[in-house]
Amino acid sequence: MYKTVVLMFLVAMLIISVFQRGFLNIRGDTQIERNARMQKEAIQYWKVKPNKSAETTEEPTNGRNIQTVTKTWDITSTNCSANLHLNSTEDFIALEQNFQQFLLYRHCRYFPIIMNHPEKCSGEVYLLIVIKSIISQHDRREVIRQTWGKEQILDGKKVKLLFLLGTSSNKAEMANHQKLLEYEDYIYGDILQWDFMDTFFNLTLKETHFLKWFSTYCGNVRYIFKGDDDVFVSITNVLEFLESSKDTKDLFAGDVLFKAKPIRRKQNKYYIPPMLYNKTYYPPYAGGGGFLMDGLLAQRLYLTSETLELFPIDDVFLGMCLEVLQLTPIKHGAFKTFGLVKDKNSKLNKEPCFYKSMIVVHKLLPQELLEMWKLVHSDLVCTINPGLLSDA
Prior knowledge:
Elements: H1 2-21, H2 29-47, H3 90-94, H4 97-104, E1 113-115, E2 125-132, H5 138-146, E3 152-154, E4 157-167, H6 174-188, E5 191-197, H7 203-217, E6 221-228, E7 231-233, H8 235-244, E8 252-257, E9 285-294, H9 295-305, H10 314-324, E10 330-331, E11 335-336, H11 352-357, E12 360-362, H12 366-376
Parallel strand pairs: 2-4, 2-6, 4-5, 8-10, 11-12
Antiparallel strand pairs: 1-5, 3-4, 6-9, 7-12, 8-9
């Protein structure tokens, strides 16, 4: 019995240690102190789970806010049944199962919030970093927190960080995943989670839920950077770009696609059947890997999104909202959401001098992101500067 208890204790401590360290292998006295502090917090957490349901908001003070819709998240239960009227149509019957499921429940627009942090928008926030993630990708969140996504104040400008999540799509491990996520949020306090399952088609739900949440709590946030959890971002370059664009009304900038055609090949991840979209081209939209937008525009996008039916591809859906507002997103060469160059084998894709000049580069695994971050912030000497503000 004694051996069993000791073994269980060692396993528990090992799990906590691995979870804390994530995938980063950071050494030094500060990390040792941090690990010791987190172990104490872990013990306290498992004894008494804190109540974070209390919500506090501050009135915007910078004069930029429009009237917020509500003061709290007002969805407390999920009461959504399938729209069975669609079952009798021939077009619906011909669709693949995943699209049938999407259409049956497309009218279900909002779900209860599980983890909430309205305090992230208190005071004057210049830049709110918002990252789409899923429960199992803790290592990606951890490396972002320790590198470019670190909360800080730069030149008097407050930068805050949030991750957007749904619930686990792994039914067998759902309870375990949720418990670990609760602990992660207890440590970092940067998780927004809603009660819908994290799937590819539900990325649009994540978009509408964030826009509603932002409109509810964040009337005094100046700008938003929104992206995926596998991007490299230079916050210094972001702030430089925003400063140069401070007089631009309704700013929405990124790696913009013009006259993109809906993909009709069923084998493709982004396949869209004509029943869902029968036009030749999508409206201009920014690649979802990373883009910047004005806080006031985000509130207008929320109101506009309420007038449109949901679409399976989230970045295209935002383009549809911009089209309704008669706004065209700004294409900028420092947003690389499809890699630095088209040739994936090119050495330029691993060149730190180019990363140093970019705002966002997409598709880096955690170890690659960490290594590139270290290179960019080392004593790097670059003979060629591609130019941060070039629109090429």
